[in-house]
Write a structure and sequence with these properties.
This protein is of the alpha+beta class. It contains 12 helices and 8 strands.
Length: about 290
């Protein structure tokens, strides 16, 4: 069981990682906290522990996408699937080519085009603040918009996201590119501690009175098949868990019916996933025999 994981074992794996792992680079557009920054949390209903900089607050970036989808499903049920698809992507998370090949149809809600399409819908139901309140009340967290990171996003506009948003307007998927991007940028800049990220994961790991079992299962399936973008098929086999990453260096894994694991380490692989986070998830998966390859 996940709650039996010994923190000392994580420490052993961290020592091994320093010798085994390639060097990666944090995302340059974000305020730097240092490549060596590390935090880890494991949360189950009866057991939890954290390691590293447990008080550090960092932006979730794309790790918010599963919860944007969960909120959308809660509000609009199956209508959500008329706005976004459920197929894995062949190209990176911000690929204009993918959206072009799909004729303006967002392939899934875990890539930027799909999340922008869902973000645009929040404008009709109270925007960012209502989503933030709902999520904090459900998960028992205190997420808030990181204004420093949001300012950095505005100083360094993401032209690929702008292109995606305008393409979505042209294809009739959203009404206003500016409104959609404003909401999308703010929700991606929600900040929290590593324990709070893991507590978000409990919403997807266990039954909750404000979350439909069907919606929870739908989000988990899409995290498994799409949460790591074009690398998702590989890690679905190697890790075998629903996983979602963010370019801040956070990564969240759901262990259904048990709990959640969150890791923060800024150095990224070429696909934008935390190198150390993936390494630890692979080790945990092997230890408990969670992967289909185990």
């Amino acid at each position: 069981m996940l709650g039996d994981l010994d923190p000392a074992l994580i420490q052993e794996w961290l020592k091994a990682a320093s010798a085994e792992l390639p060097q990666g680079e944090p995302l340059q557009r974000l305020p730097r906290v240092g490549s060596e920054a590390f935090a880890f949390a494991l949360v189950t209903p009866k057991h939890q522990f954290t390691l590293g900089r447990s008080n550090l607050r960092f932006p979730l970036m794309s790790a918010i996408k599963p919860f944007l989808l969960l909120y959308a499903l809660t509000l609009w049920q199956e209508q959500v699937w008329t706005w976004v698809g459920q197929r894995p992507s062949d190209y990176p998370y911000n690929s204009v080519l993918q959206l072009t090949l799909d004729q303006g149809w967002p392939r899934n809600p875990m890539i930027n085009s799909g999340a922008i399409a869902l973000a645009s819908q929040l404008a009709h139901v109270g925007g960012v603040a209502v989503f933030q309140t709902w999520l904090n009340e459900c998960a028992g967290t205190q997420l808030q918009v990181d204004q420093e990171v949001l300012a950095a996003v505005y100083r360094h506009p993401n032209w690929q996201n702008r292109t995606l948003a305008h393409f979505l307007v042209e294809s009739g998927r959203i009404a206003d590119a500016g409104v959609a991007l404003e909401i999308y940028n703010q929700v991606c800049c929600f900040q929290g501690t590593i324990e709070e990220v893991a507590r978000l994961g409990l919403l997807l790991a266990l039954p909750h009175d404000k979350v439909s079992d069907r919606h929870r299962q739908q989000v988990n399936v899409l995290m498994l098949t799409c949460g790591l973008y074009e690398d998702s098929p590989r890690y679905a086999l190697e890790i075998g868990l629903p996983v979602k990453s963010g370019v801040s260096g956070v990564i969240l894994a759901i262990v259904p019916r048990q709990g959640a694991i969150a890791c923060y380490s800024p150095p990224l692989d070429p696909s934008g996933n935390s190198i150390l986070g993936l390494y630890l998830l692979q080790r945990i998966s092997r230890h408990f025999g969670l992967s289909p390859l185990s």
